[in-house]
């Protein structure tokens, strides 16, 4: 039986590989320049027709004169070029689905055949991976390797990390395919590690490590480095204290750096309040800062300067570097949600004109921007289309208003959009909302708090009001008939008889049939990583559909629909008002219509228990800090349209779905849809396919037939048009299309273009696929240097001759101190006495001062990294501490709040706004608004009717 399962997994792998090859073979793209072709001749497989040797002799690539060729899948050994056609094809729906199956099947196969103890070793000692990755990132090794393979001797000399240790650290990463060891002790980046390149010069980073994540010119490339740095630092350390957090009484058993933070914790089995207190999460154990929320901590809340400083450092935010890194890291997580998915997540066009959408905890309103540019009416007084109210905390509202005023003042001026300061734990002031919309808000909060947020909305709802939640929907690891139509079967081995679960449109039993894990196992791991990240950081969580349904119901909302983009676990959940369960509600005399009765998981009204209110306030102190999953970039109207893939699906007369003329619901977005594509063609015989079909629990190797969605979106026919779109709808046709779809003055598309999520215009994990052809042309301009599969094995000249003692500057002219905005929430935290937790890799403030102006060279760095103990404690000034060295005392970096413009690089002399995310982060580094060469930049140019590339059109 096991062999049958293994054979089935093997077949899945072969089929999925075949699907990918087919897409790549049929997606014809213009031939790159001959120089490039030569450089990649080893890694590229040409399908018919082969490249014409005469077609591209010039170094400037002209797609109109080139012949067609097929793409190879991106090589693991070459640096990643996200704009290359090969990378962009990885967002093709068929490829996404196939990759998921491969990752799931390969993971399951390895788990099946590996010696169990070794699998436990892998799981149990996997903590070395983030440790090594952090050293790798903090020492800027990628920047050292940027120009090609380098001997570890040179890397050590440059970075100051002891050579012998570094070699082992890098080798562990190479063993996990994150790096390459091209010859003994010679290392090179590959497709994975190259993403960590900050785009800055190594010496610049050594001199000003605190600027690593600041935006540099047109690029925003340090976002991934920031994300990895964040994960491998405070989040990784927090995770190490999960057990202490769930068993607070165990502090007696594990007394290391822990004191019992929860006075209610009597024993290790007694449930305590710590599990539902966002300020007593594993993070708080790890960093010894109980009572301070993660974001408050990032903002320096409670810091007394006692840790090694002996006082006097009160004005310093010791976590300024981490704060800025967090902001940049959030800019790098846009791929979590399919762009434009919100448009398909709810039938916005069904709402009557003038309907009010309340974006609760809406940040700077980036999602509302997408919706407003499609559905608001700015022509008159704003009452013609949908109207939007974006609610958030005062500092965020201020930033949002500035951002909108700069980018699309007409939406504010017409009254179509307005901002409102509102604390979502207090009674909701808008009582005529058509939709309360919450995007990645609930995952920040434990159930009791999330319940309260929803209850406040329910109190203000009319009978017609809808609740729309945007969050990950975690699939169970087993088949789950919750919410699906034929439920009522077996759950946990017991018949539920006639008892029926609530029906939820879009609910799925599984993402994959047996023998794969029902939730696609490793392929879905990212959502679970995020789930635990929310848990260890502030006792928040991502939720399963069951949990979302139960949570919503507890506050009087019935979930009726879930919509997900193909290949994504991010869902838009629609709920309608129902009565609030009696045991959870009571009538309040004034203020809130309801309040939760004490004794339940949630209590509180606008006038909550003092202690509880304090928890809320502490946990809410997020000032202008971006939070997990928040959008920190406000798109321009043009960008917003670009994210639709050219327009908005189903732009219909307002009210058409809610009045006398009911409209069909919007096209469904189903996770399973990506799994439903039948094999594209007759499969190529696999070398091992001679084996008889396995008598597996699910013998049909074709995933598609087993999990066929009733509204299947991607069929074999849906692959070909993609290839055709690339080959037969060349760039020259796009100016016309764009022109028609985008009459310049109005932000509202007048036509209903194809759905951005339809098979003709699919949205992948990145926005790039929808604009593949434009991006191909852009990327082709860079071909001559960006796809060299194996960089020449040479040491970089600059590094060999690098000065051995780079100066760590204490100030930077671009980074003057700016006062932090005041917290909107008066801190009730008594000044904290920080314990010197080992997790807090913090340079003592007195040391920091002492070292001002000190020249720190590799030797000093080496000494710091290896001195004393591991170099990772507060005694030994480890490598991570170096990141904090040289910070101007109390200095915030420059966050240029004003609008800035930059040349957009297309030679048209126009400039592109790039300030919105700066404004949102306020005190965070400034990622570029529209990266040069990005798909969005291309779309923006097209929008303006500008040239698409330097190549003349036909
Ligand atoms: C993860 S972000 C989501 C932002 C936005 N919905 C988005 O998708 O980009 C959570 C938002 O909740 C806001 N927030 C936190 N506590 C709040 C409170 N008590 N009242 C209102 N908003 C709050 C934060 O300021 C932040 O903008």
Automatic annotation (TrEMBL):
InterPro entries: COMT-like, COMT_C, SAM-dependent_MTases_sf, WH-like_DNA-bd_sf, WH_DNA-bd_sf. Residues 30-63, 257-277, 644-872, 894-931 are annotated as: Disordered. GO terms for molecular function: O-methyltransferase activity. Residues 690-700, 744-759 have a biased composition (Pro residues). Residues 905-919 have a biased composition (Acidic residues). PROSITE patterns: SAM_OMT_II. Residues 265-277, 705-718, 770-782 have a biased composition (Polar residues). Residues 342-475 form the O-methyltransferase C-terminal domain. This is O-methyltransferase. The lineage of its organism: Eukaryota, Fungi, Dikarya, Basidiomycota, Agaricomycotina.
